[in-house]
């Protein structure tokens, strides 16, 4: 059986493809490239829909809920910090969007770099600490139930073909790296 944390970790790889392309684009902007609004709008669309509505929904509404149940035994529970970081990421995305609307390259770069650094560190913590803790704390039956909830969430959040469209965006962005 594939574990819920493996699915989430695999989704992180798609998010990192976009983050790496964002970093490369910031480097180009700092070397006097013009602001490519379409690129950043596509990235924002990916972040808001794939990373936030699709991926974070599974973490926040399913995994984190399970980890916060009284029956779950963990030495410390980093869920509150992870939720805080999700909110910080959303604020950086708002900053990118604001910078685009104002045609403010400096603001776009600042918020994009902030988002990229936050998410790189956040993903590292989830993949290497939180998910390991979750795998140890959640029994097989709970994990199977979570997989079912993941499938339901996917169908609820994305219509047929939507997930594939976002995966193709990640692949296209990866080609830019």
Question: Which terms would index this structure?
Answer:
177 residues; Four Helix Bundle (Hemerythrin (Met), subunit A); 6 helices; 83% helix; elongated
Structural class: mainly alpha
Q: Mind summarizing the main beta sheet?
A: none
Query: CATH superfamily name?
Result: nmb1532 protein domain like
Give the helix tally.
6
- The mean pLDDT is 95
Tell me, briefly, the overall form: elongated
The total number of structural domains is 1
SSE succession: HHHHHH
| Helix percent band | over 70%
Low-confidence regions: none
CATH topology: Four Helix Bundle (Hemerythrin (Met), subunit A)
- Radius of gyration from the CA trace? 17 Å
**How many E-type strands?**
0
Q: Tell me the span between the first and last alpha carbons.
A: 33 Å
Q: What is the correct CATH architecture?
A: Up-down Bundle
Strand content: under 5%
CATH class: Mainly Alpha
What does the model show?
83% of the residues lie in helices and 0% in strands. The protein is built from six helices and no strands. Helix 1 runs antiparallel to helix 2 (37-67), helix 2 (37-67) packs antiparallel against helix 3 (79-101) and helix 2 (37-67) runs antiparallel to helix 5 (140-157). The longest helix has 33 residues, at 105-137. The two termini are 33 Å apart.
Helices and strands in order:
Layout: H1 4-30, H2 37-67, H3 79-101, H4 105-137, H5 140-157, H6 162-176
Overview in brief:
This protein has 177 residues and is an all-alpha fold.
């Amino acid at each position: 059986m594939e574990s819920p944390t493996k699915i989430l970790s695999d989704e992180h790889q798609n998010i990192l493809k976009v983050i790496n392309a964002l970093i490369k684009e910031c480097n180009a902007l700092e070397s006097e490239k013009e602001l490519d609004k379409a690129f950043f709008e596509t990235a924002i669309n990916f972040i808001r829909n794939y990373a936030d509505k699709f991926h974070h929904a599974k973490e926040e509404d399913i995994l984190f809920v399970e980890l916060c149940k009284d029956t779950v035994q963990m030495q410390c529970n980093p869920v509150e910090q992870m939720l805080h970081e999700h909110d910080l990421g959303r604020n950086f995305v708002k900053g990118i969007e604001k910078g685009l609307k104002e045609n403010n390259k400096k603001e776009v770069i600042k918020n994009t770099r902030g988002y990229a650094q936050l998410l790189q560190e956040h993903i590292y913590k989830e993949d290497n600490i939180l998910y390991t803790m979750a795998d140890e704390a959640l029994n097989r039956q709970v994990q199977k139930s979570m997989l079912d909830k993941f499938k339901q969430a996917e169908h609820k959040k994305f219509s047929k073909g939507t997930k594939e469209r976002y995966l193709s965006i990640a692949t296209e962005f990866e080609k830019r790296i």
